[in-house]
Every structure is written in structure tokens, then in C-alpha cells.
Amino acid sequence: MSKSYTSKHPGRVVSDAEELKVFWEKKIQHHARQLQREGERIRRSALDRLRGEWAQKLELRHRALQAPLEAAPRASGDKTAA
What we know:
The chain has 82 residues and is mainly α. The chain folds into two domains: 1-45; 54-82. Helices cover 93% and strands 0% of the residues. It has helices spanning 3-8, 10-44, 47-81. It comes from Myotis myotis (Greater mouse-eared bat). This is Family with sequence similarity 240 member C.
């Protein structure tokens, strides 16, 4: 704001600044509470456990599917040698 405005209305500028400060402090506190609640929700969630279980199941399935493919060339190699 211009210097002339602040000299004519010094209380108004301080009031506006204080209101803005309070407004943003409330916003920051609200955001911090939301982040904290979200963190707690994620910690309580079973999603990580389920992801781990699915990753383990997929790894076992992948190994099971790869085992016959790895054994197949050796088996076909034995047939050609016979």
C-alpha cells in the first residue's frame, strides 16, 4: 500500500496485517492437522500388507511359470540327442 494510505489509516493497515497473519496461521494449522490425520490413516491401513502379499503371490506365480520354460530347453535337447 502507498505511504499516504498508511499514514492516513495506520490502524487499518495493522488490522489487515493481523487478520492476514491469523488467517494464514489457521490455514497452516489446519493443513498440519490434515497431514497428521492422513499419516495416521496410512499407518493403520492394511494396504501395505496387502501389497506385500500380492507381490509375494506374483513372485511365486512368476517362478512357477518360469520353471517349465527353463526345463523345456533341456528336455527338448535330450530328445534331439536321442
